[in-house]
Design goal:
19 strands, Aspartate Aminotransferase, domain 2, Aminotrans_V_PyrdxlP_BS, globular, four-stranded antiparallel beta sheet, Aspartate Aminotransferase, domain 1, lyase activity, cysteine desulfurase activity, transferase, about 425 residues
């Protein structure tokens, strides 16, 4: 793989050239950015689109009849169509703009919470990000909901037999990640949905929310194939701006949700003694939306669409495997999560060294990785670690990045022995 065969079907060097930040140096070394699972860098196409909109086409959307407002509205709603196409949603009206994945999950949890009764059950997994745990804990605290947990097996995969046993007539919601931000595990989300929809009370189908903040980047987020009621993504991991995300919902699922916030845009009429609400998606988009950010996300997804997803996934996995192969036999290293078909996330613990120290030393060599609990404390406890270090590969990373990562990691380990 060191001979460059990793790029036979895909040219990451041409992609890399489109990211201005990747040409800089850190501590006198070429930047090797492997913190992509936290937030990805932005291509020139997105940067230019944001600048062009601010310089020549910005106005508030929907409310104006003047040229700038019409242009901004058209670009804003076009971005919604792009997200719908990316997810293979049936309609753009099934895409709600949010400020990120966290707000999208909170939107659903708050809406569901109004009808939660004490003893109603919500199923999550041990590998969830805190953003897909804490909103459900709030319903436990405030409404008396019961949280049930799908166990994680030693290889980092979900215990699907245990999941099937957790489903009951009291289950109201199943909320699981498409892809773990720590283990890289890509979950069988279509099967998770199928089992949930086949269970539950006869008069109330269990709803399923998929956290796609990682899966939308590394897997194939086809909501019609998955069959979920809700799917969440965030823009900053998809090479778009921060402060923008999206919630997909089945038409009937969105229609059943009450408003999340009140204000302008989300209403039909407002009178002294009553108010009526807009239909989805605008019912959930109170106030001035993240206009620039939505347009930027649309551009990012259009930019991403020019690359064959299968080729990108193969490239990312080859980089991951190259790093793993080079580290084979290093008995001081423990890799967390080795489920079959996992994505290109390499999370590890170094014997005798704290993850924060490892990451800081690697930064001396220009290698950016993340360290800590990765907003997944229940998973860390399940895996028996107090912290870990994470490298995550995307389409602009190269085999040279993978080699620089391994070299820096070995130097960091040697520092402690």
């Amino acid at each position: 793989m060191a001979d460059g065969s990793v790029v036979n079907l895909f040219d990451p060097y041409a992609v890399r050239a489109q990211f201005p930040i990747l040409s800089r140096q850190v501590n006198g070394k070429p930047l090797v950015y492997l913190d992509n699972a936290a937030s990805a860098q932005k291509p020139r196409a997105v940067i230019d689109a944001l600048v062009a909109t601010m310089e020549g086409g910005y106005a508030n959307v929907h409310r104006g009849l003047h040229t700038l407002s019409n242009e901004a509205t058209e670009a804003f709603e076009k971005a919604r169509e792009i997200v719908a196409r990316f997810l293979n949603a049936e309609s753009p009206e099934q895409v709600v703009w949010t400020k990120g994945g966290t707000e999208a999950i909170n939107l659903v949890a708050n809406g569901l919470g109004l009808s939660i009764q004490p003893g109603d059950e919500i199923i999550v997994s041990e590998m969830e990000h805190h953003s897909n745990i804490v909103p459900w804990h709030l319903l436990r605290e405030r409404r008396g909901a019961v949280l049930k947990w799908i166990p994680v097996l030693d290889d980092g995969s979900l215990d699907m037999a245990a999941y099937a046993d957790l489903l009951s007539p009291k289950t109201r919601m199943v909320a699981v990640t498409h892809m773990s931000n720590v283990l890289g595990t890509i979950n069988p989300v279509a099967e998770i949905v199928r089992l949930a929809h086949a269970a539950g009370a006869p008069d109330s189908r269990i709803k399923v929310l998929i956290d796609g903040c990682q899966g939308a980047v590394h897997a194939t987020p086809d909501v019609q194939v998955i069959g979920c009621d809700f799917y969440v993504l965030t823009g900053h991991k998809l090479f778009g701006p921060t402060g923008i995300g999206a919630l997909y919902g089945k038409a009937e699922a969105l229609e059943a949700l009450p408003p999340y916030q009140g204000g302008g845009e989300m209403i039909e009429t407002v009178e002294r003694d009553r108010v009526t609400y807009a239909k989805p998606p605008h019912r959930f988009e109170a106030g001035t939306p993240p206009i620039l950010e939505a347009i930027g996300l649309g551009v990012a997804l259009e930019w991403l669409a020019q690359y064959d997803r299968a080729a990108v996934q193969a490239h990312e996995h080859a980089l991951y495997q190259h790093a793993v192969d080079r580290l084979q036999g290093e008995n001081w290293l423990r890799i967390l999560g080795q489920a079959e078909g996992k994505g290109a996330i390499l999370t590890f613990a170094v014997e005798g060294a704290h993850a924060h120290d490892v990451a800081q030393i690697m930064d001396r060599y220009g290698v950016a990785v993340r360290a800590g609990l990765h907003c997944a404390e229940p998973l860390a406890k399940r895996m028996g670690v107090t912290s870990s270090t994470r490298a995550s590969f995307v389409l602009y990373n190269t085999v040279e990045d993978a080699d620089a990562f391994v070299d820096a990691l070995i130097k960091a380990r040697n520092f402690f022995v």
